[in-house]
């Protein structure tokens, strides 16, 4: 359907317009091969399997993710194979390895992308920055994308609750003339709440900015700054964490998600209301130059270059663990761990 956001019209596809039965019918002759069982692979493959599609998983044998796939019920030789064998068996190859993994495996995968097959992504990185990734697909295959706007863990959790994460979709190359139907079918099959149209470049630009911005990077920076000021001014760790993180994540954000920020402002104390309305533009003005710099770094390809170089470092995993450990052992998140353990379980509230 066409939805108007002010003067802007967008294409939105809902489950009512494209029901699961239509998705199953569209892909009834396809073997969906999910390559990679890391971040998005488990949620997407399990949801597709539970929704009645023919799905197999490809993963490096005896890796941590291979063992995880076995625990999730995938059976070696039946629907769990090496990356190479799954690439050969599948007709729709869902390329869900990490960006670094996609670069590494591409010379092998390309040999299995014979005429008429389909190549699926959940991220536009590999093709948008092809000069750096060296991912150049042939012209005789379909190429499309569905990108859930959330983690694979959330995708699976909400699916099991009968809900769904919204996803973007895009067709990059339509060799068969049926790419759009395939795209929407997988989008519905993985449990998307609804699907909105994009293209590969816009998907990766918005995704990289979001991850470094309000979704992860900026929010951690704001958490850290506010917590530090409160502690420096003599507030206790518990008070500082609750006012910085706990109230936001446990109380306010669920309400913002349900009702919107304007509703939040209208339904809080007049003191909080007035302060929030007075200060939000100052935070916008302070961070806008950073977001402009961030978008320029992403769109120029400089950020992609830095990511590829960093992730290709043989010591990347060790460095990553050190960075995550430093974060985990900061006072902010050590306090957070204690606070989370103090939350009453639902069973204790009856």
Task: Describe the fold and architecture.
The chain is an alpha/beta fold and 350 residues long. The chain has two domains: 2-199, NAD(P)-binding Rossmann-like Domain (Rossmann fold); 210-349, Orthogonal Bundle (N-(1-d-carboxylethyl)-l-norvaline Dehydrogenase, domain 2). 57% of the residues lie in helices and 15% in strands. It contains 17 helices and ten strands. It has helices at 20-26, 41-50, 64-71, 83-89, 99-112, 125-128, 130-133, 152-160, 179-189, 200-212, 217-232, 237-259, 261-266, 270-300, 302-311, 316-328, 331-342, and strands at residues 2-5, 8-14, 32-35, 55-58, 80-81, 92-95, 118-121, 142-148, 165-173, 192-197. Strands 1-2-10-9-8-7-6-3-4-5 form a ten-stranded mixed sheet, with helices on both faces. The mean pLDDT is 94.
Task: List key phrases describing it.
17 helices, N-(1-d-carboxylethyl)-l-norvaline Dehydrogenase, domain 2, alpha/beta, 10 strands, 15% strand, 10-stranded mixed β-sheet, 350 residues, 57% helix
Please specify the SSE layout and strand pairing.
Blueprint (H helix, E strand, L loop, with lengths): L1 E4 L2 E7 L5 H7 L5 E4 L5 H10 L4 E4 L5 H8 L8 E2 L1 H7 L2 E4 L3 H14 L5 E4 L3 H4 L1 H4 L8 E7 L3 H9 L4 E9 L5 H11 L2 E6 L2 H13 L4 H16 L4 H23 L1 H6 L3 H31 L1 H10 L4 H13 L2 H12 L8
């Amino acid at each position: 359907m066409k939805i108007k956001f002010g003067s802007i019209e967008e294409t939105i596809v809902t489950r009512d317009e494209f029901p699961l039965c239509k998705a199953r019918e569209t892909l009834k002759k396809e073997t969906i091969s999910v390559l990679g069982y890391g971040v998005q692979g488990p949620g997407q493959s399990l949801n597709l399997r539970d929704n009645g599609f023919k799905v197999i998983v490809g993963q490096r044998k005896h890796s941590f993710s291979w063992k995880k796939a076995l625990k999730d019920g995938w059976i070696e030789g039946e629907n769990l194979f090496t990356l190479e064998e799954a690439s050969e068996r599948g007709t729709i190859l869902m390329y869900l390895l990490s960006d670094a993994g996609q670069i590494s495996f591409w010379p092998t995968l390309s040999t299995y992308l014979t005429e008429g097959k389909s190549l699926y992504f959940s991220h536009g990185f590999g093709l948008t920055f092809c000069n750096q990734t060296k991912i150049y697909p042939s012209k005789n295959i379909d190429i499309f994308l569905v990108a859930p706007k959330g983690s694979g863990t959330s995708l699976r959790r909400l699916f099991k609750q009968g809900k769904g994460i919204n996803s973007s979709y895009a067709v990059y190359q339509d060799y068969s003339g049926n790419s759009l139907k395939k795209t929407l079918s997988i989008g519905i099959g993985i449990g998307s709440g609804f699907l909105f149209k994009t293209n590969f470049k816009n998907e990766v630009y918005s995704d990289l900015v979001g991850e470094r911005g309000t979704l992860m990077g900026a929010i951690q920076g704001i958490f850290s700054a506010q917590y530090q000021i409160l502690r420096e001014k003599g507030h206790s760790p518990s008070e500082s964490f609750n006012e910085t993180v706990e109230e936001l994540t446990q109380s306010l954000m669920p309400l913002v998600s349900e009702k919107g920020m304007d509703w939040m402002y209208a339904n809080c104390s007049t003191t909080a209301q007035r302060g929030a309305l007075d200060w939000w533009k100052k935070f916008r003005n302070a961070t806008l130059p950073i977001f402009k710099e961030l978008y320029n770094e992403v769109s120029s390809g400089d950020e992609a270059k830095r990511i590829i170089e960093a992730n290709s470092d043989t010591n990347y995993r060790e460095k990553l663990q050190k960075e995550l450990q430093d974060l985990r052992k900061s006072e902010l998140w050590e306090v957070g761990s204690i606070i989370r353990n103090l939350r009453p379980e639902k069973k204790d509230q009856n």
